[in-house]
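[agent] plan:
  1. take the single chain provided in the ticket
  2. run structure prediction with default settings
  3. attach structure tokens to the ticket
  4. add a short note for the reviewer (M.T.)
[agent] executing step 1
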Amino acid sequence: MTAQRDVQRGEPDVQRVEIEYCTRCRWLPRAAWLAQELLTTFETELTELSLKPGTGGVFVVRVNDEVVWDRREQGFPEPTAVKQAVRDRVAPGKPLGHSDTPAG
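[agent] step 2 finished; step 3 output follows
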């Protein structure tokens, strides 16, 4: 599945993911690893992925400005949980293979 196109303009819809991470906590490697996982999984669906330096213990994942994961409320995310949250917003119905299989 590719990014949806705006029929009138012929341009792809923007599917933007932002990962904001705390620089003081040294969470860049974690943010970069998660970014790599998302870019690999959604290589044709995402039009942009950015890493946003922050402070104060922040680790937040946003899809098109909507918070889909906040470390303060949900703890550190497993890649599977973030992939499912991103998929539900940018590519509903896209199978995620083993990431869709419940643990157990």
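[agent] step 4 note for reviewer: The CA atoms of residues 8 and 39 lie 28 Å apart.
[agent] ticket updated
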